[in-house]
Automatic annotation (TrEMBL):
Xref: CDD domains: NAT_SF (cd04301)
Gene3D superfamilies, sorted: 3.40.630.30
Pfam families referenced in this protein's UniProt entry, alphabetically: Acetyltransf_7
Keyword Lipid biosynthesis among UniProt keywords: no
InterPro entries: Acyl_CoA_acyltransferase, GNAT_dom
Domain of life the protein comes from: Bacteria
Molecular function, one GO term: acyltransferase activity, transferring groups other than amino-acyl groups
Domain N-acetyltransferase, chain residue ranges per copy: 1-162
Keyword terms, alphabetized: Acyltransferase, Repressor, Toxin-antitoxin system, Transferase
UniProt keyword Acetylation present: no
Lineage of source species: Bacteria, Pseudomonadati, Pseudomonadota, Betaproteobacteria, Burkholderiales
Catalytic activity: glycyl-tRNA(Gly) + acetyl-CoA = N-acetylglycyl-tRNA(Gly) + CoA + H(+)
Name under which the protein is recorded: GNAT family N-acetyltransferase
Amino acid sequence: MTLRAPEPLAAQHRLEGFDCGKPALNDWLLRHARQAQGSGSAKTFVVAEDDGRVAGYFSLTVGQVDTLEAPERIRKGMGQYPVPVVILARLAVSREHQGLGIGVGMLQDAIRRTMLIAEQAGIRAMLTHPIDEEAARFYTRFGFIASPLREQQLLLLLKDARRWVR
């Protein structure tokens, strides 16, 4: 099994049969990822086998967080302006490929892409909404911190993110 580095979702990628164990994440990939890619509402990147079968994916979009919803370290210096963020909307690895480090690799790739965006536009942090406690534990291992007002909203200050990418 040879896996390719994360690349933008394209027609040659085979989505059928993808199962990460989380129905909502499976459904979004199968039903909505291509539409979001086409409309520009979210960009999805996939790790695929040589035959195009998807082993994992993540989706990015942009947004903002009210300063009151951001942890102190993230809102510091922002005044009353919303905090600009890249949203890691989804990240999932197929059951067959779990435990191989693909999730960590995709998170690192998502952070790299976020840092590239931040070189061209104002982005202070990466935000994610973990689907469950297992996902929340995964993100907190990499320095994501909870919003003071929304427990299931985690943020990673970009200057902290730099230590996770090479």
